[in-house]
Structures are given as structure tokens and as C-alpha cells.
Amino acid sequence: EVQLQASGGGLVQPGGSLKLSCAASGFTFSNDNMSWLRQAPGKRLEWVSIIDSTGTSTTYKDSVKDRFTISRDNAKNTLYLQMNSLEPEDTAVYYCARFVARVHTNRGQGTQVTVSS
Question: 95 and 110 in contact (C-beta within 8 Å)?
């Protein structure tokens, strides 16, 4: 059974930083591209960043480019999202997912990120 568990969220002031982690199990993590998604209150789920299976190619939503960094440790079956210069608009539940055949699948339990003073 595929399991993806995000963690590391919390309450942070504008301009602050957080690092999210996603523990993966039940599939061969090193074979799959992975992604981070988020859903803000009252809004649709949106993708934030994608990383290829080897960690050498990354893509970001324009609004987070130069502030967020996606990475992975295939030896630890873990995906990361370093978020800097956080803005209130980044407030959302963040999820990790497998990105297979250009589809975000197996979205796991999310972690709440709240940016507020």
C-alpha cells in the first residue's frame, strides 16, 4: 500500500521559513517523480513543485519560484520542501504526491502551514 505522510508544518510569521518532509513507503520511491501540492481555504488544490526521480530536475509554480526548494533523499525515501520568505498567501494544507504519467497520484495526509503575524 502506497503511503505518503507529510510533516513539518506549523505557524510562522511572514518572512519566516519552514521545511516540510514527506515519508514515503509502499512503492519504489527512487523510481518515481514526486510533487508537492497545496490547498488553501476555499480554493482548489494546486501543484507547487515537481522533482524528477533522481533529484536533478525541478519545476516550480511561478509564485513560489526563488523562495521554495524541493529536494529528495532516495536513500531515506523522503521528499522535502524548504520554504523561505513565507507569505500569508502560502497558508494552506500541503501534500506530497507521486507524479506519474503527468498525474499527481496517491496524495497522502497533509500538513498545515499557516503564515500569520
Answer: yes
Helix, strand, or coil (residue 9) = coil
Give the chain's residues under pLDDT 50.
Answer: none
Complete DSSP assignment for 28-81: -GGGSEEEEEEE-TTS--EEEEEE-TTS--EEE-GGGTTTEEEEEETTTTEEEE
- Number of Cβ within 10 Å of residue 88's Cβ equals 11
Percent of the chain with pLDDT over 90: 91
